[in-house]
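Annex B. Sample input.
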Amino acid sequence: MLTPVLAILSTTVLAAAGNQAPVYSCENTTTIQNTCCSPTPGALVLATQYWNTYTGLESSGQFLPENSWTIHGLWPDFCDGSYTQYCDLSRQYDPSPSPNTTNGLANGTVVPAWKGETMTDLLKRFGRRDLLSYISGFWVGRGSSSDSLWAHEFSKHATCTSTFDVACYADYAQGMEVVDYFQASIRAFKNYPSFSILAAAGVVPSNTTTYTLAALQSAFVSQTGAVPYFGCQGPAGNKTILGEIWVHAHVLGTPQYGQYKAINTTARSNCAAEGINYYEPTPGSVVSKYL
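Annex B, continued. Sample output.
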């Protein structure tokens, strides 16, 4: 079974915890006193990943990494699996909000498109070219720039969990929590290396072999102790093209630095029971330079 990644020191200083004993998120029996130290209300943390076979922007130098899934995001769901989105429009960096209202409905508050600093420039402003290099290789958009995907994920999701609130940072500088969110997303991604987990069970990309949903689920149970959500594409009732994995977890501490414990998915997979295609990447869409 995979050992959860333990807390690491950061140059970012979070506000001090109170005297409340630490407890895994969604497992507390009393109200969380210091919401900077435990995520609320988005206490069910989803480490979400994509399997794409191309980016559509190879001509612009946007490639997939070799033998690896890519980061989709880090999502704070409510403990029952429901969620909210775009919770703080003062920290909205998404150039193409989707949905374009806070509740996804016509009566929701409009999410204005961001026209300012890119995530690339924000990371450079903080001197984090190392972080920029990593997410350029492992957090990759399809059909749109990776930078816009990063901005979307922070704005839609990170603003809905308390541990990324501005008030949680000492000596706050605008965008500090964005850097923290990107680091936390990488950390969760590394904690659940989907390509290796599946490969250990003999499930590898193939244009000829298909797999059962049970085989995919078993691979993760053997390594993490829990069943994640598997997302597939295809016609209704027969979705057989594997494209997403969402690992659901409770966290002891913060998503930034705490200990993850995988739990069974709260959402039923939309994949067919059998005949699932885990396709090989398109030739020319992968580079092996990313470490």
